[in-house]
Amino acid sequence: MLYDRAKIFVQAGAGGDGAVSFRREAHVPRGGPDGGDGGRGADVVLVCDPSLRDLQQFKRKARYKARRGGHGEGSNRHGASPDPLLVRVPPGTVVEDVEGTLRFDLTEPGQRAVVARGGAGGHGNKRFATSTRQAPRFAERGLPGEERWLELRLKLLADVGLVGLPNAGKSSLLARLTRAHPKVASYPFTTLEPVLGTLEGEDRQIVVADIPGLIEGAGEGAGLGLEFLAHVERTRLLVHVLDLAPLDGSDPVESFRTVEAELAGYGHGLAALPRILALSKADLVPPERARAAAGEWRERLGEDVLAVVVTSSATSHGIDELAAALLRHVPSEQPAPEEGPELALAEHRVYRPGDDGGFRVERVGEGRFRVSGPRVDRLIARHDIANEEAMRYVEGRLRAMGVVRALEAAGFEPGDDVELGGVVFELDPGAPFA
């Protein structure tokens, strides 16, 4: 089976904690603080690997956790920052998080996308030494790494897509054009998953995809239409395969309109792709009827198609003509990827909505306030609130950030309860701090 969808959970590594340490050596009085910083946690990075063909590996493993940073140590030794955790995906993979805050499109071999950033390491106590605080007995904790659920969808990277109703002869045509071996039988059935084949030219190759048969309503999700149509999005040319001798006696004109309506209804530019019309199963009708049908279709479609080719997979009639048309009309070079927000996300940090560094003060009861905001939450997460010296430092940082001023403007009085980062305690900003 072709696994073209998967859902995985990624968790970046947490940052290492800073160390509380003092230099203690003989003949070195008052050595001072020498606690090192914690290392940064490892990122989770998706890498486009051309050796992969589908998302089957994620059926066996759906959770990926990167290593945490090392803790700081004495003698100013910093914790290690481990290498990123690389998760390999096939070309054509579209990555989105379930909240819709980021999106990556990995099409080129070697392309990388950072989907979860490692947490920053905490500072050791040496970082907090000042002229008035010469022996700090506190350090920062490391921050947790980002974590999120990701949805992966594979869209085949094919140059040509064969489309048509079920049993139109697409699989037989692909087997004749390429070395692919899709299921072909003498009884009616439809392919259940896309199949790729390579058409060899004198100096180039093009990839042809057999897209499973479309039914009416496929563009709105009927059957497996949306899954099938997604694989046509990246193609640069479509071959509409039309049965000259349908077993159910259906009208070829109506069959053609049905498929074209589904392509147009799905959107994503499919209606604008160049077309070649392949009239299949010519061996089942008299030659003069096949020639007449080709003339009628050329007159009916005009410039809407690049060519109308009569084919027979049973006798190989028209196969060389169709192959030559494909090699002639598919551009030699792939279009350059557009520079947009999706590619830019791979180079820069993805910020969650509202992560602007601000804060909000609100009264939640008599003598009780709540302060919320990313910077405030990070400040509380980094420090041990049970450490009196660390708490004095936090109060100083809150004053410098303007939080104390905002609390006083909201009616705060010393001794009131304040909730910061999910922790409730009494805040007395009037007390001296170093």
Count of helical stretches: 10
Briefly, what CATH class of the largest domain?
Alpha Beta
> What is the topology, as strand order, of the major beta sheet?
10-11-9-12-13-14
CATH architecture of the largest domain: 3-Layer(aba) Sandwich
Please identify which CATH superfamily of the largest domain we are dealing with.
Answer: P-loop containing nucleotide triphosphate hydrolases
Percent range of helical residues:
10-25%
Order of helices and strands: EEHEEEEEEEHEEHEHEHEHHEEHHHEE
Percent of sequence in beta strands: 15-25%
**Over all CA atoms, what is the radius of gyration?**
32 Å
Termini Cα gap? 66 Å
Main sheet record? 6 strands, mixed
Number of strands: 18
Q: What is the arithmetic mean of pLDDT?
A: 82
- Structural class, from helix and strand content? alpha/beta
Any idea what the shape is?
Answer: elongated
Number of domains: 3
In short:
The chain has 434 residues and is an alpha/beta fold. The protein has helices at 57-60, 170-177, 225-230, 252-266, 287-301, 319-329, 341-345, 374-382, 388-401, 403-409; strands at 5-11, 44-48, 63-65, 85-89, 93-97, 103-106, 112-116, 147-154, 160-163, 195-200, 205-210, 237-243, 275-280, 308-310, 360-365, 368-372, 417-420, 423-426. It folds into 3 domains: 5-154, GTP1/OBG domain (Spo0b-associated Gtp-binding Protein, Chain: A), CATH 2.70.210.12; 160-329, P-loop containing nucleotide triphosphate hydrolases (Rossmann fold), CATH 3.40.50; 360-426, GMP Synthetase, Chain A, domain 3.
